[in-house]
Design goal:
Elements (H helix, E strand, L loop, with lengths): L18 H5 L12 H6 L6 H12 L7 H8 L6 H5 L6 H15 L4 H13 L3 H16 L2 H8 L1 H5 L1 H9 L15 E2 L7 E5 L4 H5 L1 H13 L2 E4 L9 H5 L3 H18 L3 E4 L2 H7 L2 H4 L7 H8 L2 E3 H6 L12 E5 L3 H6 L4 H8 L4 E4 L14 H4 L1 H18 L3 E3 L3 H14 L4 E3 L1 H11 L10
Parallel strand pairs: 2-3, 2-4, 4-5, 6-7, 6-8, 8-9
Antiparallel strand pairs: 1-3
Helix pairs in contact: 3-6, 13-25, 23-24
Length: 444
């Protein structure tokens, strides 16, 4: 409920930003040096403190949901770096998602924005549709049409968002066709847990080898791995973008599916998905029939590295001769507070040299669909990230989120930097498999 001011709130009573959460902000400014949009734009309204001020003003009826208000709410990457820096533990991500939910109910977007959002939300959360779309995109690459449009610059003229979608596409042959995972994979050795794996949407279709590696790593550590065939999108994309009712529907379905699977834990290898799933209790807080189930489900959710690091397994690791650097995906390091576990496990791999990445927590600019709706700003964040990666001398940069890997790979290709991208679980899987061979492998 909004603080009484005698004015009518710009927000309705449904899923409105929590007063207690925005009153926790003491306006100290400690978040400012961590906020990518503030560091790039230098605008007070484009930092967490300024956005909280705007949310409170709208909640108290001092301002309306205007185009200016919308601009500042959506210029935010929702990276949540401010939450890590905040001495008052302000739940900024929850405030932003609630404010965006109000915008989507009460603000009429320009036609071009409505079309783009409808396209994104009708495609990306549905793996079957995405798979069919990728088949058409491969044809687009093979026929030479992609090269023609890139050479003429026509796509940028038509739409910066379309040009960004095209740029994010992996090169021909770089993305193996997705394969179905077994519904149940038995553990190696004594069973230590029965776990479910979220196969995801973009992860399932565009990064199938990451899911395959995740299953092998979990099985190697004594887990019976269940990959329910009826699972779908977790709703993270919609939740971040203020499409709260579709997000809730996906959340309820995800909870039901994994409840039926009877698993001890739900393992996630995509940072944005895991962050939202760990907060289903907040997403469904107004739903009396679901909030307790959501809370019980959220307690079971683990990032794959968070989970494996906690097992203290004794599986043997083989040699992987590679120089690697690690990029902190925002929703893993700030949303889930998983920071040390990936590094600890990577450092255990014989032959692997892990080099520090300066500003490893600075957002790469992917941020869900941010790079599609704010392509120019997104590239400014990416350039800073690429500068830091280039300094490391690494052969490979790994990150625990598919969006980050697509974004960074695009930037590396444009700069002609001979650095590969990947998920850290792929390296752990490679090390386990290398242990079964007589000589340590090089990553091919």
């Amino acid at each position: 409920m909004a603080v009484p001011t005698g004015r009518k709130s710009a927000f309705d009573l449904h899923d409105q930003p929590d007063v207690e959460k925005y009153l926790d902000c003491i306006h100290c400014g400690m978040c400012l040096p961590t906020c990518p949009t503030y560091l790039v734009l230098g605008n007070e309204m484009d930092n967490p403190r300024g956005r909280i001020y705007l949310i409170r003003a709208a909640s108290e009826g001092q301002i309306g949901i205007t185009s200016n208000f919308v601009k500042h709410m959506y210029s935010c990457l929702l990276c949540r770096a401010c939450e890590t820096a905040c001495p008052s533990s302000v739940q900024f991500g929850s405030l932003m998602e609630a404010a965006r939910g109000q915008i989507e109910r009460h603000y009429e977007r320009p036609l071009s924005e409505r079309v783009l959002r409808r396209f994104v939300f009708s495609l990306f959360p549905y793996p079957e549709r995405l798979q069919r779309a990728l088949a058409l995109l491969r044809l687009y690459q093979q026929t030479g049409l992609q090269a023609l449009l890139r050479g003429t610059g026509l796509l940028k003229t038509l739409s910066r968002s379309l040009a960004m979608m095209d740029a994010l596409m992996p090169p021909r042959g770089a993305m193996p066709a997705a394969r179905s995972l077994p519904e149940v994979t038995p553990p190696e050795g004594t069973r230590r847990a029965r776990v479910g794996l979220l196969s995801g949407c973009v992860q399932r279709v565009m990064f199938g080898p990451v899911n395959e590696a995740t299953v092998r790593v979990l099985a190697k550590n004594g887990c019976e791995v269940v990959v329910p065939r009826e699972q779908g999108c977790c709703g993270s994309l919609q939740a971040h973008e203020g499409e709260l009712e579709p997000a809730k529907a996906f959340a309820r379905r995800t909870i039901e599916v994994f409840e039926r699977a009877g698993v001890d834990y739900v393992i996630v290898n995509a940072a944005g998905c895991g962050s939202v799933m760990k907060e289903y209790h907040d997403l469904l807080r107004e739903d009396a029939a679901w909030r307790d189930r959501a809370a019980a489900f959220s307690r079971k959710v683990r990032d794959v590295f968070q989970f494996v690091a906690g097992l203290d397994g004794d599986a043997r690791l083989g040699e992987v001769r590679l120089t690697v650097t690690y990029h902190d995906a925002c929703h893993l390091v700030h949303g889930q507070k998983v920071r040390s576990e990936p590094r600890t496990l990577l450092k255990q791999i014989p032959g692997l040299k892990l080099v520090d990445l300066k500003e490893s927590e600075f957002c790469c600019g992917s941020a869900g669909i941010y790079n599609l709706v704010e392509p120019d700003l997104s590239l400014r964040y990416l350039e800073r990230k690429l500068d830091r990666i280039a300094e490391t001398g690494a052969e490979m940069v790994v990150s625990g989120n598919p969006g980050c890997n697509l974004q960074i790979a695009m930037g590396l290709e444009k700069r002609n930097l001979p650095i590969r991208t990947g998920h850290p679980v792929e390296l752990l899987d490679l090390a386990y498999r290398a242990a079964g061979r007589s000589r340590g492998p090089l990553l091919s």
